[in-house]
Amino acid sequence: MDERFLLMIPGPTFSEQSTLLSLARVTRSHISGEFEDVLRNALEVLKKLLNTDGEVIVMPGSGTSAMEFSVANFVRPGYRVLNLVSGYFGEYFVQATRARGGYSIQARTKVGLGFRGDEVRELVERENVSVVTVQHVETSNGVVNHVSQIGGALRSSGEVLIVDAVASLGGMEVNMRDWGIDVCFAGSQKALAIPPGLGIVGLSKRAVEMLESGESELFFFNGRKWLSMMRNVKNYFSTLPVNMIYALSESLRKISTEGFEKRYLRHKVMAEAVRQGIEALGLSIVADKDFRSDTVTAVWLPSNVNFQDLSREMLNRNIVIAGGLGELAGKIFRIGHMGVVNANDVASTLAALERSLVKVGYPVKLGAGVSAAQEVLARHNF
């Protein structure tokens, strides 16, 4: 594989050149006014992207560190926590809950299905929980959970709702205020189109009040300390990744220039084009039609196709796709279509997939997938 390749996995994703070049800027002091201006701007855009009236924390790490921060600050030993598990990464919440000393109550869906509001309300009433956790997009299988319905179902009962938006923020609408989300976290390397290295946590007003009013035995993940530093970088606690925040600021500038709604529409159309192309090749999508995300599509492998063989053929054509995780390892492949992915990337990926499938012994009509995708793209003027 040479330097001209497409990274069509569910993260890390490609970063635009201006974002990458921002990493090479001269590093300023992490408590300087110049750096604080950059951070302040990034936090304001993130608040708009998350639709929160509360505050946002940016820390070194990843989506996983942002998850542990979220659980550690809002789950105490003995708390009853409802972990909604719709795939591999839903299990992370279970592990984080137990690591904090919480009592994990798990609800699981069948493969390809997500959660809606009514069933969650019934579970909460029956189990008497204090916290509910859920993925917005389950990266391992392309399932989207109906978080707006879940939040609406919990609004009158008072549970803390923690949402994993790692694979959605920046590619799909996230509305903490209207959806009743208390804590919503993400990483930098997916739809935000920045290299790996940042954890992002959005907090509602209620969540901020909870952090400020409670005592914490946490050290690095102490929410009050991180809030204090976000408000004033001179409240030094841990050195912020200055150059990564330069990259964040530049990427958020590009996102704002594109416009949130146009960006979400682009992701929706790219997802539809990928799915139509996949199905035109006679392949089946893992996620049920009511639970398909706009950022990643998981596809069942034909019985006679080995993922390693298919992946190798795609690599030979300079395109990287992802395999399955956990119980889906060896059974599916995944295509990420988030961040800066455009119509040409989608068409190229499907064209290479067609030739790769033929090479590994799965006969398809060359051009069928591309043609189906092109119809979607043309219909939406992409």
Question: How is this structure best described in words?
Answer:
With 382 residues, this protein is of the alpha/beta class. The protein has 2 domains: 6-11 and 259-379, Alpha-Beta Complex (Aspartate Aminotransferase, domain 1), CATH 3.90.1150.10; 17-257, Type I PLP-dependent aspartate aminotransferase-like (Major domain) (Aspartate Aminotransferase, domain 2), CATH 3.40.640.10. The chain is 43% helix and 15% strand. It contains 14 helices and 14 strands. The protein has helices at residues 17-22, 33-50, 63-74, 90-99, 117-127, 147-154, 176-179, 205-213, 223-231, 242-258, 260-280, 307-316, 343-359, 368-379, and strands at 6-7, 55-60, 80-85, 103-108, 131-135, 137-138, 143-144, 160-164, 183-187, 198-203, 296-300, 319-320, 322-323, 332-336. Strand 13 and strand 14 form a beta hairpin. 50% of the residues are buried. The mean pLDDT is 96.
